[in-house]
Amino acid sequence: MTTSHRLALAAGALLLAMSAPATADIKTVARCQKKIAAAGANFAKRVIVATLKCTEEIAECQVQCEQGVFGPPCENNPPPCCDPDDPGSNAAFGECMDEADEYCAKQDLKIASYEESKQGKITAACTALAQEELCGATGNGLNFAHVNAGCLALDPEYTCTLPNLIECLGGPLQRKLLDQISGLLSPRASDAVLAGGLQSAFPDLPVTRKVKEDLPAAGKLDLWSLTGQAGDKIVVRIKTRDDTGSDQSTLQPTLAFLDAGGITAVPDTTLNSVQCSVPNACGTGCPQFERVLPFNGTYVLQVGAGSAAGCDAGGYRLIVTAPAGTALALAADDVDP
Predict the structure, then answer these.
(1) Is 296 inside any structural domain?
(2) CATH number at residue 325
(3) Count of structural domains, the chain
(4) Do 165 and 71 share a structural domain?
(5) What is the pTM of this model?
(6) What is the pLDDT of residue 137?
């Protein structure tokens, strides 16, 4: 083989090598995967702690309001009183909530710094991976194809690159799960989100909405519209109120979950009966249910006054815990069946 032939072959091999995508060795792929797992786990722990610190700070103010530390609670007293869901109801309670809001703002800044640190560590460990190793469906790389499907579901314009994958993993996908875990670990967190106006800071922490109403007679109904998206998890509860001034309710509350027409029950809804917050004169329980919405659109929550012996009319509180994007409104008041 002549020297010119050898030079031509060498040049061709060099061009082929330059045009072929770089492939990371096994150690590099493993290092990337470990860093994603370790940095992601550390980020998750720190975010959950910061979230709970914030929501517990607000919850502490709310508990003090409910226990009468700032003045008579609105639950059983006329204004002026303290409403744990309304910081403007009481000056001392409002000051406590303002301090909690400042504390939460600091936690929010910490979460942003945790995200930046996590992304930097993962980027440094994964830059050498080829596109297929990073984004493909084969077992030779990270096998993040199923994660990419989730990212595409959130953003139809998504394309798999290292920065985009890190942003999706650390952004909506991971934060959604972390907010849900925080809500599980601290049941009052959902109350705190709404009372503190924290929906933008913790978009996937469910929000608890509480509304008060009265039913004037047995057989009367209130219809509440609930608008949400398929897949939204909701928890609906009815709490009785003190109707006599002696910690007794005179209402037997009933509950039904209906479609937008307000007539047909939504299938697969299991109602449970639990002890009422204020015992009623007829000795019955209070209804509640938990479920996932089966379709996008509007539903109807039908709250009624039963006719068990000793009960006829009374006040109640409807409590709905659902994603922040859901909407609750009174559609019809004191109607006949």
Answers:
(1) yes
(2) 2.60.120.380
(3) 2
(4) yes
(5) 0.74
(6) 63
Structural domain including 160 reads 26-185
Give the number of other Cβ atoms within 10 Å of residue 167's Cβ: 17
Q: Tell me the pLDDT band of 139, cut-offs 50, 70 and 90.
A: low
Tell which wins on pLDDT, 1 or 65.
65
> Which residue from 288, 289, 299 is spatially nearest to 253, judged by alpha carbons?
288
Q: Where are the beta strands (DSSP E) in 252-313?
A: 253-258, 272-274, 286-292, 297-305
Copy the structure tokens of residue 151: 């990212």
Mean pLDDT of all residues in the chain? 86
Same domain, 35 and 181: yes
Confidence of residue 6 (pLDDT cuts 50, 70, 90): very low
E strand or H helix that includes residue 122: helix 91-126
Q: Do both 33 and 167 map to the same domain?
A: yes
Smallest CA-to-CA distance from 190 within 40, 71, 84, 65 is with: 84
pLDDT for 145 = 67
- Domain assignment present for residue 149? The answer is yes
Helix axes 174-185, 26-66, angle to 10 degrees: 40
Residues 6+ apart with CB under 8 A from 301: 223, 224, 225, 226, 236, 255, 256, 257, 258, 318, 320
